[in-house]
Amino acid sequence: MSTQFYLGIIGVGGVGTAFLQQLARLPEAPKLILLARSTQTLLSPTPTYTPGIPAAEWKTASATPDLTKTGALSPEEIAKYLSSAPGRAILVDNTSDPALAASYPIFLRAGVSIVTPNKKGFSSDLSLFREIFQSAIRGNALVYHESTVGAGLPVISTLRDLTSTGDEVTRIEGVFSGTLSFLFNTFAPVGGSGAGKKWSEVVAEAKELGYTEPDPRDDLNGMDVARKLTILARLVGLEVQTPDSFPVESLIPKELQGLDSSAEGAKTFMERLGEFDAQMTDIKESAEKEGKVVRFVGSVDVPKKEVRVGLQKFDQDSAIAGLKGSDNIISFYTKRYGSNPLIIQGAGAGGDVTAMGVTSDLLKVMQRLR
Amino acid sequence: MSTQFYLGIIGVGGVGTAFLQQLARLPEAPKLILLARSTQTLLSPTPTYTPGIPAAEWKTASATPDLTKTGALSPEEIAKYLSSAPGRAILVDNTSDPALAASYPIFLRAGVSIVTPNKKGFSSDLSLFREIFQSAIRGNALVYHESTVGAGLPVISTLRDLTSTGDEVTRIEGVFSGTLSFLFNTFAPVGGSGAGKKWSEVVAEAKELGYTEPDPRDDLNGMDVARKLTILARLVGLEVQTPDSFPVESLIPKELQGLDSSAEGAKTFMERLGEFDAQMTDIKESAEKEGKVVRFVGSVDVPKKEVRVGLQKFDQDSAIAGLKGSDNIISFYTKRYGSNPLIIQGAGAGGDVTAMGVTSDLLKVMQRLR
Q1: What's the whole-number average pLDDT of chain A?
Q2: CA angle, A300 then A303 then A305, to 5°
Q3: How far is CA A179 from each of CA A117, A225, A246, B334, rounded to the nearest angstrom?
Q4: Segment B9-20 mean pLDDT
Q5: CB distance A336–B152 less than 8 Å?
Q6: Do domains B5-152+352-369 and B156-347 have the same CATH topology?
Q7: How far from chain centre, in Å, is Cα B258?
Q8: What percent of chain B has pLDDT over 90?
Q9: What pLDDT score does B112 carry?
Q10: Which listed site, A108, A123, A322, B105, has its alpha carbon 20 to 30 Å from B311?
Q11: Which of B26, B140, B161 sits opposite A360 (nearest CB)?
């Protein structure tokens, strides 16, 4: 009943900071003993793993003399440190680092559970995905990753509940990117053109509002959505090798795909995007002629084993067409739910709601390991 | 790691039957040792609690000579039988019996966990609600009741995730009855009168399709919705004494409220309901004049501590207005989610989806007690 939990956190960006705030307010928080950012690692001294790092004052904690400070540690070193703690250890990975994700098996085999919003471990090579869950079984550890799809929305947990109770999921479909949701809700709202802004203007506005990645091409290339669909498809049993082993429509015009990935390339991209506005206007107007609107969606057709990411037309009175702001919507069609899907909708991006998925996963892991 | 789980089930109605089917297909099912219906109880013989009752052949299992058959047992007797099993015991209550729900504390104090879609324990007197959760702590047992609101939809679990991670829920609102959803989606569809059926005709049609309770007054009096709202309000911390301690609008015309609750009373009710169609037509048309539609909803306003159940007007392009069939929709407004709520939508009634919530809860209880 009185298992002591020891927590390591890697990453103090937007999600990491929000997570630390939520952690500081938990009534029964685990003991924070490792906090790592890219260049610095803060540790509770061994062998006592005491004192813990105060989550509420993590910014100034590195000045505390009784905590250990080092540079970056390797995954092996961190796994050894955490698994030697005198209780159950959990690592929260709040980065989007593919190298760290590739090391999850090291942690799991050592009995360290993983909680993370980092999509990389679950959406890269299928072999890594499998190794992660096999390592968890071997190490008697748990892996929770609710926030890899739809941030704090209960997407992964609902999908697991459906499959674990024997329902047959036939189709998953939805808007999985807050950025692309905002772009199309603004560019092609229900009821016609509205303000009639051009595509490049809408993208520029979204970038200014902070709704896109610093380089908007990271949203427009569709790869973030492709990674989420890869995760969902694998959870219903499809063997998706990588996130580019199925059709992903990029919204980066062909002529601009050669620009390099530097900040300079991003600048040129934004300057030249307007040259291709006519293409997007055509797509929008062709949908309007059919009484529909265009949206950027992802779908998994389970019986056909097809995963797709790209533009699609929707009836104006459909739930997808009616989305507001930067909301996500995810529809699960299953045998039990019949013709009307089980739908989950709401903010699918943002530090607080993403961190909520992480905190909620952490509580579930603690409940199960208690 | 190899905790043995012993399961007792009470109730083999629509949900109970669907649950037994799902249980029979679970890869790691608990051992079924008690199956009780109103007049008969089937038990695995003590002290070995072997053999188990085959979930797949439960209908014919009472003919098996090596199982024990008795009449109805008291809650105390069942609790003693289950808690003496050589492992962790779980009781699934698939009835809607208030007396059984009032005995949950007896089971929980004896260490028997409870999984149930029965609303009575959580929506009757506040003192029972509190005693249930206090008894669970004392007995080191768990209580899961996802299917008490929205059937298998992840409503209770999502609300618990929001509150346990420190979000501030400000408002909960939605359509919580599949029956009333169907009635209003048919009677007052978006876009005007449609087929133009009278209210009493729509109710009669729903009754024939099996969408209402055998006595439709059990849906129209709003009490089922009031019980669900009572549960949600209590989970966000409001001290709701009983499900009739807040305003609940009944759709039973005043003039018919004196009819007795017999089958004869139900028959007279259905015969006379048409006399009051003009009232419902007025309500519908007054909404249409404002460009709105009328729906039967429940809401919890947390800062104001107000719970309400009744008719309300909604914009035609709102998610509530756009509901289809007999779907439920539940919107959570919270501090983190801001102006756009977290929304869950889908079938909120039916044996299979209700049983799914029960099965999913059972798996979670087993994961936590392992």
Answers
A1: 95
A2: 50
A3: 17, 10, 22, 21
A4: 96
A5: yes
A6: no
A7: 27
A8: 91
A9: 98
A10: A322
A11: B161
Residue A164 clears pLDDT 50, i.e. is over it: yes
Q: What is the dotted CATH code of the domain comprising B156-347?
A: 3.30.360.10
- The H or E element that residue A169 is part of is strand A169-175
CATH 3.30.2130.10 fits A5-152+352-369, yes or no: no
Burial letters for B8-22: b for 16+ Cβ neighbours within 10 Å, e otherwise? bbbbbeebbbbbbbb
| pLDDT tens digits for range B54-66 | 999 999 998 888 9
Q: Is B12 annotated as a binding residue?
A: yes
CB B177 within 8 A of CB B219: yes
Q: What is the mean pLDDT of residues B26-49?
A: 96
> Considering only CA atoms, which of B114, B72, B124 is closest in space to residue B93?
B114
**Do A12 and A95 contact (CB within 8 A), yes or no?**
no
> Could you check whether the bond before residue A341 is cis, i.e. omega within 30 degrees of 0?
no
Packing angle, helices B351-369 and A351-369, rounded to 10: 60
Among B21, B137, B161, B182, most A C-beta atoms within 10 A, so best to mutate, is: B161
Residue A347 and residue A327 in contact, taking contact as beta carbons nearer than 8 Å: yes
Say how many C-beta atoms besides its own lie within 10 A of residue B367's C-beta.
12
b or e along A168-178 (b: 16 or more beta carbons within 10 Å of the residue's beta carbon)?
Answer: ebbbbbbbbbb
Of B197, B62, B153, which Cα lies nearest the Cα of A341?
Answer: B153
Candidate list A120, A207, A228, A292, residue with the active-site label: A228
Please judge whether B352 and A367 are an interchain contact, meaning their C-beta atoms are less than 8 angstroms apart.
no
State yes or no: pLDDT of A136 exceeds 90: yes
Q: What percent of chain A has pLDDT over 70?
A: 99
The predicted-structure confidence for B247-295, as pLDDT tens digits, reads as follows 999 999 999 999 999 999 999 999 999 999 999 999 999 999 999 999 9
Q: What are the domain boundaries of chain A?
A: 5-152+352-369, 156-347
Q: Which of B1, B165, B344 sits opposite A359 (nearest CB)?
A: B165
CB A149 within 8 A of CB A156: yes
Nearest CA to A234 out of A150, A327, A163 is that of A163
